[in-house]
Amino acid sequence: MSPRSARLARLSRSVTFSACHRLHSKALSDEENLKLFGKCNNPNGHGHNYKGRELISILAHGIDPVSGMVMNLTDLKEYMQEAIMEPLDHKNLDKDVPYFSEVVSTTENVAVFIWDNLQKLLPQGILYKVEVHETEQNVVVYKGEETIVK
């Protein structure tokens, strides 16, 4: 196969995890938190099932001409187990995951957490996006964007 005919493909794999959290910012008063986050600010927290095909990492890379794959799915499964399932599944995000001790455990920040963890394990430049469905209606897509110029 000539370099001209190299093909780019996007590979995705889903995982499902359950976790609880409380939306609460230390920068706000209790009243401001309640106003901003409503019932999601419940002091006892609340939970979500981030269900199959609803938490997806997508890899963009050339198809290897020898293996015919973007990446071995067994390897990807292991990376996702380490980066997502072990730290997040059946956890209280605010109490069990050190990252969220200073960061509000919104779905946006869960997506950033997953992105950062996967970036540490995957080959450089292969991760394209992380998509997190908190519910059927609430979805966050993160592509590694770090800042917005204001």
Write the layout of secondary structure elements.
Elements: E1 8-14, E2 17-21, H1 30-37, E3 46-50, E4 55-62, H2 73-88, E5 91-92, H3 93-96, H4 107-121, E6 127-133, E7 139-142
Parallel strand pairs: 2-5
Antiparallel strand pairs: 1-4, 2-3, 4-6, 6-7
What does this molecule look like?
- Belongs to the PTPS family.
- It is an enzyme of class 4 (lyase).
- It holds the Pfam family PTPS.
- Pathway: Cofactor biosynthesis; tetrahydrobiopterin biosynthesis; tetrahydrobiopterin from 7,8-dihydroneopterin triphosphate: step 1/3.
- InterPro entries: 6-PTP_synth/QueD, 6-PTP_synth/QueD_sf, PTPS_Cys_AS, PTPS_His_AS.
- The protein is α+β, with helices and mostly antiparallel strands and 150 residues long.
- It has a single domain, classed as 6-pyruvoyl tetrahydropterin synthase/QueD (Tetrahydropterin Synthase, Chain A).
- The protein is built from 4 helices and 7 strands; from the N terminus they run ββαββαβααββ.
- The chain has helices spanning 30-37, 73-88, 93-96, 107-121; strands at 8-14, 17-21, 46-50, 55-62, 91-92, 127-133, 139-142.
- The protein has a 4-stranded antiparallel sheet, with helices on one face.
- A hairpin with a 5-residue loop joins strand 6 (127-133) and strand 7.
- Helix 2 (73-88) crosses helix 4 (107-121).
- The longest helix has 16 residues, at 73-88.
- The chain is elongated and about 60 Å long.
- The N and C termini lie far apart (46 Å).
- The model has no long low-confidence stretch (mean pLDDT 88).
